[in-house]
Design brief:
Layout (H helix, E strand, L loop, with lengths): L1 H28 L6 H7 L8 H16 L5 H9 L4 E5 L5 E5 L4 H12 L3 E3 L9 E3 L11 H59 L1
Antiparallel strand pairs: 1-2, 3-4
Length: 204
């Protein structure tokens, strides 16, 4: 039972690391030029002091996110110069070799590999944080309400451009058929009324 508890602690620790990597990658990809100080204060990674180097990581990640630059090899090569692994006492009580997730290029390489299938760029040109993780392959807009609303408007415009004339023609034909049916019903009702009047007149 104790062994199972230690195993759960190991899994929980890895899940935490994966969650932090996820949020860090999103934060870095959407990082504005005036947000560098906040980024350094918020994250516990070994972040290079020159702003230019941090911005280089951001540019590399954005290109990777858009599928135009596979920076994994560069990140791994850089991480190898920074001692990316260490021997540490694990929650199970035994020593083990573990990644040093504080090494930024290592976490970038691991996180990008984990999240690549979900990476998307919001199609709203005014989205302040366009780099997001898709819940489904076909998702084109992030989950911000304003972007979802923009996407719905775009979908309606596209649908109307592609199907609007056909829909209007079908609606006009339907209305015409309904008017014809109504006219037929009125004609039949008047015919019955004339017959009834004729019968009453004949009876008297």
């Amino acid at each position: 039972m104790a062994r199972e508890s230690k195993r759960s602690e190991d899994i929980y620790s890895e899940q935490n690391e994966a969650g932090w990597r996820r949020e860090m990658l999103l934060d870095l990809a959407n990082l504005s030029d005036d947000g560098l100080v906040r980024f350094r204060r918020h994250w516990r990674y070994d972040i290079p002091k020159p702003d230019a180097e941090l911005l280089d990581y951001r540019h590399q990640l954005r290109r990777f996110w858009s599928g135009t630059d596979w920076a994994l090899l560069a990140w791994v090569n850089e991480a190898n110069t920074l001692k990316p692994f260490e021997v540490r006492l694990l929650p199970s009580g035994r020593p083990g070799v573990v990644p040093r997730y504080s090494v930024l290029p290592l976490s970038l390489a691991i996180g990008a590999t984990e999240l690549a299938p979900k990476m998307g760029i919001c199609a709203n040109p005014e989205c302040p944080n366009p780099y997001f993780l898709r819940a489904r392959v076909t998702q084109r807009f992030c989950d911000r309400p304003a972007c979802s609303a923009y996407g719905q408007r775009q979908h309606k415009r596209t649908w109307w451009r592609e199907h609007g004339q056909k829909w209007m023609a079908e609606r006009a034909n339907l209305r015409k058929r309904e008017l014809n049916k109504k006219s037929d019903r009125n004609r039949k009702r008047k015919a019955r009324a004339r017959k009834d009047k004729f019968r009453r007149t004949k009876a008297t």
